[in-house]
Specification:
The chain has 9 helices and 6 strands. 26% of the residues are buried. By secondary structure, the chain is mainly alpha-helical. The longest helix is centred in the N-terminal third of the chain and has 29 residues.
Amino acid sequence: MSELVTGEAVALELQPARLPSRSLAALLDLAVVVVGYVVVSIALLAATASLDEAAQTAVSIASFLLVLVGAPIAVETLSHGRSLGKLACGLRVVRDDGGPIRFRHALVRGALGVVEILLTAGVVACVASLVSARGRRLGDVFAGTLVVRERVPVARSGFVPPPPPWLAGRFTALDLSAVPDGLWLAIRQYLGRMDQLDPQVGRAMAERLAGELAARTGAPVPPGVQAAAFLAAVVQERQVREARRTFGGGPTAVGAYGPPGAGAYGPSSGGAFGPPAPPAPSSPSYGPPASHASPATPSAPAAPSPVPPVEGPGTGFVPPA
């Protein structure tokens, strides 16, 4: 494990990728880039056949820089450090503080990667990774990045405690789309290790993470709620949404405990973040339950229907009704 020290002097653990997995990811990326470069070179060669030699050389250099250098930089920037090879091997490029990389980090890594990987057949990158304690090549050292493993076995991951019962399902209306992956990673690492931290330092770190999460979601921390409990409740809400999105259990805008504004035990009178309202008293029932109702009283026998008048035989006289 690699310890990343935050501003609050708290060490966060990340598992750096070692040389075998990084080499396999680099080979996969290099194979894709080389195939693309060959296809683009053949197309440009056919398109610039009528040009002179100097123009063809300039086009070749431009295609080399565009495909072999520009494409990996663009992919790492847009995917936040996950190229095709890294995605297949379960790796990711992050900053030294665990956050997602940006364009300048990908630019430095790509520019030095031309020398480390392409021009020296990966020898410089392999030597630098073996010498570095965290398996970093020169591009990572100058860019301030680190390649970590995303697929960590469950047995090694820290247990994320559940939120208090009265906070479960009360953040269903939060918009979590603007929260970056790096912030989720830091929150999960804190929740998994908060019992091992100094109480004062852990409280300060929880307040900082809760402030960043509130700024991203646009909803402040509810009054009277501890920062750690707020973080645990929001993480659980994200897990519920991911599970519903994966298994198709319905819309993710409604939590597992009811519609927005409803608590774990019913509607809340104090808003979506207030404590759960007590259950409404049920009106007393003085009659016997339906399952134990007394048998119905037998009704009186119905009166016999009147006999229709019958005509007398052979007399022509009809008796009165």
